[in-house]
Write a structure and sequence with these properties.
Layout (H helix, E strand, L loop, with lengths): L2 H25 L2 H16 L10 H31 L9 H17 L5 H12 L4 H8 L3 H22 L1
Helix pairs in contact: 1-2, 1-3, 2-3, 5-7, 6-7
C-alpha cells in the first residue's frame, strides 16, 4: 500500500464514525449521514496530496457541510420545480426522466451563478429564462439599462469562469 492510501485509510479509521455521528446529529437521518460521510471521503480520495492534511477533522467538516448545503439546495430547488410543475397541465408535464434532467440542469445553472450578487442572478434569469429584453428587465427591477448591461456582463463572466474551471 502506498503512502497516500495508508494516510487515507488512517484518516478514515480515525474519523469516519465521528463524522457520521456529527452528520447524523445535523441531518436527523442515519442514511443521509452515511451517504454524506461516504461522499466526503470520496472527495478526500480525489485530493492530490492527502498526506499534507494538517487538520483532518476541520477539512472533513468543511467538505461534509458543503455537501450537506448542496443537498439542501438541491432539495429546495426540486421542491420549487415540483410546485411549478403541479400547476401545469398533465399532458405537457415532462416524464420523470426529463424532470431529473431538468433539475440537474437547474442545479448546474445554479452552480454557474454561485457567488453572484442577487441582482446579477435576477438579470441573468430574466434575460435567459424569461426572455425579457434589457429594457423590460430595467423596468421590472427598477435599475438603469446601463446597470443591467453591467450586471449581465458580470453574470456571463462568472459563467465563463465556472465553465472553464469544469474543464
Amino acid at each position: 500500500m502506498n503512502d497516500s492510501n495508508s494516510v487515507i485509510q488512517h484518516l478514515f479509521e480515525q474519523n469516519h464514525t465521528w463524522l457520521r455521528s456529527r452528520l447524523r446529529a445535523r441531518t436527523g437521518c442515519q442514511q443521509h449521514a452515511e451517504d454524506l460521510a461516504a461522499e466526503t471521503f470520496l472527495r478526500v480520495l480525489s485530493m492530490p496530496a492527502p498526506e499534507r492534511i494538517r487538520e483532518p477533522r476541520a477539512l472533513l467538516t468543511t467538505i461534509a457541510y458543503r455537501l450537506l448545503y448542496e443537498s439542501w439546495r438541491r432539495r429546495d430547488l426540486e421542491k420549487a420545480y415540483l410546485r411549478l410543475l403541479a400547476g401545469t397541465a398533465e399532458e405537457v408535464q415532462p416524464s420523470p426522466e426529463e424532470q431529473l434532467e431538468l433539475i440537474d440542469r437547474l442545479l448546474h445553472l445554479d452552480r454557474l451563478l454561485n457567488g453572484l450578487p442577487g441582482q446579477a442572478k435576477a438579470v441573468f434569469v430574466c434575460s435567459f429564462v424569461e426572455g425579457l429584453t434589457y429594457s423590460q428587465i430595467s423596468q421590472r427591477l427598477g435599475l438603469s439599462v446601463t446597470s443591467i448591461h453591467r450586471l449581465m456582463a458580470s453574470a456571463l463572466h462568472n459563467c465563463w469562469e465556472a465553465l472553464a474551471d469544469e474543464r
